[in-house]
């Protein structure tokens, strides 16, 4: 018996996982979380029409889903007023990020992102064997000028920008992004991750320009639409770019129930408006809770609020640990100076009532722990 | 405005799609199929317990699914009496085939398969930039000796074998596969695609040997379990091999409803036994229908029957077209000499009653068409 030879790229990859899920933490802890506010899910849930459509679809799950994702792509295209051949559906933005890197970044070429930005993107870049160049945040925002400069100097093939940003919740006005887009060097593909755009101020979302093959807009049903479990994301771009995805995507990879649920969710825009109102209210309440404890909530255009704990990464980690011990699932940025913060997803009134009671306790515990360390 | 630079591999790929779905054909025809017997789905559907679990899970679809797929992997591991770290869950076998190629076949290295075997595997090999070497079938079976010989001579990194085979339905006894496995050259990974093993004779399925890192066993919930729409496949192998997948898989790629449905389906083995009985009966009935029209059904261990139409590929194509015109969705092998056949998935009694009436008509139409051509 011998051994298989692994690819050079995979052999050298570390066995890292982008995010440990709350379920794994619950198994390790031996008890469930009371509040699930760490994964930027939408606890308000999807449209009842989407739930109804998924329930109706369940008995039909013996059928493969349409590999062209026709009905959903048509609905997305109509929503954005673009032709359907400008839209590709994928297994969440995560899946599309992997495909985009495969389409545009040969092994050894440079990909630019922000230091502390979405780890799953970095994971896909590593798996493609491309070289990641990380640009520091500036004032808790992705530094558009520095990102552009790095892309130019390093002859990048892909540039990743998220707007609003995760994990900070910050955003740039459309005009700034449009300046970045206009200045993109030839050969670069901009991945504009807009997972959180549905909850952002309207002026944070540039108009979609399908004539520009250098820009891919990434959207999802996981956040405002409340369908994280469905694993349905999509990308909008020029037909020349979008058709490249058909060469590499898993054509039968989209699940039937999720696809049907996403279609129904998109068709229920009044519900989306209502949910966004809940999310905006929850952001304000989380900010109030933070301020009540003497912490500084950062402005957020996303479905979470990032809270500056007022000290270093070790202190914020102590606060997070104290929250986890009190059965609150939250997360925090991992890279300095962002790591002085914790990140709390929007919850329902009852969730935030509990959070408002637990945060002061957790802060006290963290202060005691750091003082005695 | 410039253009993004595409990767060398993707730039050179043809814009080919592995399979056109029945929905696309229905849109082109302007009317639905009456019989859906072309995609080897399980028309008997999943366990009612799986349907119930999916219905119950639908309102919770705002949560991401556990990225470790813990509960499902534990159930799969218990079912096969292996440790859970021998199991990885993916977006159908299709998704796992793409990952397996990424793990084991550097661009430019050789991958061996049978000429006429599963096109989606070839699609993934092309997207990886590996070189596909195709070995002819022998007597409508994958030619194990010739495949092994090609793997040895061409220094292959990956060897693909399906058992039972799609599109022919043929299979090898476990003893022959075990001889192949024992003779694998060092450095080769065998992908043993067993999508159809649940409907095969028991002696067609080798025992799982997790001590051998050269063999990956690929299974699915899409066929006998009746959950094609759920997109849940899995691979079983040595922990050393399985852990490589964690370096490249889309950790949050598995949908929640499908994962919960698959778990419930696996836990209802009595239902699986009942469905397999229906499938075996349907195979016999399709064979009878074929023989009644003077055609030769091939022996099948799968959930379909491949029917030798007794002439060349052009005639079989005419038969298939005549079936499609009569609203029967079926498919056929694409490569000679397999292409003399059509492939019909197992249906319910009422489906096969209709098929039994339509096949003679379609044959007459095909004979007339070929005679007048």
TrEMBL record, chains A, B:
It comes from the Bacteria. Residues 34-351 form the Aminotransferase class I/classII large domain. Pathway: Amino-acid biosynthesis; L-histidine biosynthesis; L-histidine from 5-phospho-alpha-D-ribose 1-diphosphate: step 7/9. One of its GO terms (biological process) is L-histidine biosynthetic process. Its cofactor is pyridoxal 5'-phosphate. The keyword Transmembrane helix does not apply. Transmembrane segments: none annotated. GO terms for molecular function: histidinol-phosphate transaminase activity; pyridoxal phosphate binding. InterPro entries: Aminotrans_II_pyridoxalP_BS, Aminotransferase_I/II_large, HistidinolP_aminotransfase, PyrdxlP-dep_Trfase, PyrdxlP-dep_Trfase_major, PyrdxlP-dep_Trfase_small. It catalyses: L-histidinol phosphate + 2-oxoglutarate = 3-(imidazol-4-yl)-2-oxopropyl phosphate + L-glutamate. Pfam families: Aminotran_1_2. Its EC number is 2.6.1.9. Belongs to the class-II pyridoxal-phosphate-dependent aminotransferase family. Histidinol-phosphate aminotransferase subfamily. NCBIfam families: PRK08153.1 (NF006014). This is histidinol-phosphate transaminase.
């Amino acid at each position: 018996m011998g051994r298989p030879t692994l690819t050079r790229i995979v052999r050298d990859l570390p066995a890292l996982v982008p995010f440990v899920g709350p379920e794994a933490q619950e198994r390790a802890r031996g008890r469930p979380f009371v509040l699930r506010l760490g994964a930027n899910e939408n606890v308000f849930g999807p449209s009842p029409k989407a739930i109804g459509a998924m329930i109706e679809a369940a008995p039909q799950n013996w059928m493969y889903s349409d590999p062209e994702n026709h009905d959903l792509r048509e609905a997305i295209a109509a929503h954005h007023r673009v032709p359907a051949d400008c839209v590709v559906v994928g297994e969440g933005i995560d899946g599309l990020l992997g495909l985009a890197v495969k389409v545009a970044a040969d092994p050894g070429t440079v990909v630019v992102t922000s230091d502390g930005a979405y780890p799953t993107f970095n994971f896909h870049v590593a798996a493609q064997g491309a070289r990641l160049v990380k640009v520091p945040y500036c004032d808790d925002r992705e530094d558009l000028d520095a990102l552009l400069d790095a892309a130019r100097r390093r002859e990048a093939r892909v540039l990743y920008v998220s707007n609003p940003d995760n994990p900070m919740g910050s955003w740039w006005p459309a005009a700034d992004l449009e300046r970045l887009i206009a200045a993109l060097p030839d050969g670069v593909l901009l991945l504009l991750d807009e997972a959180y755009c549905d909850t952002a101020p309207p002026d944070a979302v540039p108009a979609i320009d399908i004539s520009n093959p250098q820009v891919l807009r990434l959207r999802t049903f996981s956040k405002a639409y409340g369908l994280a479990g469905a694993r349905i994301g999509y990308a909008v771009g020029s037909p020349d770019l979008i058709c490249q995805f058909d060469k590499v995507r898993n054509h039968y990879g989209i699940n039937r129930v999720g696809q049907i649920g996403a279609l129904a969710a998109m068709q229920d825009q009044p519900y989306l408006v209502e949910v966004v109102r809940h999310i905006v209210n929850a952001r304000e309440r989380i900010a109030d809770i933070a301020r009540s404890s003497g912490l500084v909530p950062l402005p957020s255009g996303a479905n979470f609020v990032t809270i500056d704990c007022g000290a270093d990464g070790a202190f914020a980690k102590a606060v997070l640990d104290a929250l986890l011990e009190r059965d609150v699932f939250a997360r925090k940025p991992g890279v300095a100076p962002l790591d002085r913060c914790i990140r709390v997803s929007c919850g329902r009134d009852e969730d935030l009532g509990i959070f408002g009671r637990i945060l002061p306790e957790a802060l006290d515990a963290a202060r005691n722990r750091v003082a005695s360390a």
